[in-house]
Amino acid sequence: KDRHVSKEHIIQNEKHLRLYLMPVIGRKRIGDVTEENLQTVLNYAHSIGNNGKGLAYKTLKTTRGVIQAFVKYCRIAKTTKLFPENLLIPNDAHQSTRKALQPDDIKKVFRSDQTTYRGKIQHDWYIHAYRIEIIVGFRPGELIGLDVSDIIGNRCTLKRAVNRFGETTHGKNKNAIRSFEIPEIGMREIRAQRKMLLSAGIQTNVLFPTPDGERLNQQLYRQSWNRYKEHNGIADRTPYELRHTFFSANKDMPEELIKPIGGHSKSFDGFSTYSHELDGDAHRAAQWIDNTFARILGSDQ
């Protein structure tokens, strides 16, 4: 048993086993469970999940992974010899897609720093957080976990993320810990954020703290973004879709340039690939982003 897994990981596993495995397997002894039984679990999850709409392909992959991890634990405990490596996700499982802000809405984010709070129009404390997430594609938990000391010059080194339970983790995958050059449009937001904190008399190493200087949490960030987008007439997008906006805006950027920024898990080797020959690539990527937002924002930049 891994004693170092997060509360979020434990809750996710419990949920998938409770909602999908138990109704099918019931009180059957684990030694009597077959691969066919487990395939039935996946089929069941596909048919009844998401309030009867069926689980999306990505969620079914997670369910399959939870099942396989559970069976692996049972093998270690010598209660089964089952190896369910051939579980199939139904072919008609739909692929969920995240949406991005369109250029007009991106312009609104960079034009307006106003929001509505308790019926009053005021400056949005997290405006620079929204903008920097769009500019460099942070995950919300990474943005919340960012410290002032993580940025030296224009180089950002992501070292942590804060999940929805307030736990500090090493991020979503092995490439979540990464280092890259922040483009100039992003550095302007960083400088503006530091100036705002200084003007408010807040002394903290947290780059995007609450107004009282504490570490922000994902729920509060989401609530603040929801108020901001409603006040400014912005399309209904989640904080995570601000990250997706970055990738959509830079969809033509070469893969080898965008992966070190985005922290994707596929075939990118995190810190181990950073070397002197990549220094030029980091600057190219930063320039590419600056050019992208110059086109989108025009005279607003």
Description:
This protein is mainly alpha-helical and 301 residues long. The protein has 11 helices and 7 strands. Helix 2 runs antiparallel to helix 3, helix 5 packs antiparallel against helix 7 and helix 5 packs across helix 9. It is elongated, with a radius of gyration of 22 Å.
Oligomer: single chain
Gross morphology: elongated
Main sheet strand line-up? 3-4-7
Give the averaged pLDDT, no decimals: 88
**Structural class, please?**
mainly alpha
- Succession of helices and strands: HHHHEEHHEEEEEHHHHH
Structure summary:
This protein is mostly helical and 301 residues long.
Q: Keywords, please?
A:
301 residues, mainly alpha, 3-stranded antiparallel sheet, two-stranded antiparallel ribbon, 7 strands
